[in-house]
Amino acid sequence: MAQPGPMHNFSSPALLSQLKTDLGWLREQILIAIRRGDGRGAIHQANLIPPGLLNGRPDLYLPYRILREHVIDRLYDQNVGYWQPDLQGLEHLTRADNAAVLVDYLGMSEPQLVKAIERLVADGKYELAASLLESSGDKFDHSLAVANARRFVYLKLTEKHQNTDPFRFILYSGKIGEQTLQMAATK
Description:
Blueprint: H1 6-9, H2 13-36, H3 40-45, H4 53-56, H5 61-80, H6 95-105, H7 110-122, H8 126-135, H9 144-161, H10 166-175
Helix pairs in contact: 2-5, 7-8, 7-9, 8-9, 9-10
């Protein structure tokens, strides 16, 4: 059975009208959070859901959820600018720099990295596990254990986002060389 396409999620003028109202509410909440000095991650973690969305129109929840993270990112970038409050964007650190901190200065070994990844995955912190893997740079490219951990983390991320964020699904699939199925044309 074919999965419903994106048009299924945004299916009627009434739904789009209400979604516009809910996204307007979201915009205001994001701007308030930015003025308060909240970082992008804190705004995402606030799980901003308009009052009444879950009680009034359950058909709005998925379309709202699909758009919410991208709206937060876009408004944050537009309003905060290049240099983030946490100093991100001021320096131009590379993956090699981050890997050097982990391995050369903190002494992280291959087994320690794999164990940390396994703990993060067990706690459902897939994004943090992926960030740690990316931060390790090329230091552990030769490791089968790290390669297996990487594959598992990105499979969990594709699974998490397969129905709600096609962009992440495609990017995470690409990180481990997974082919994504081409959508069939509808008539």
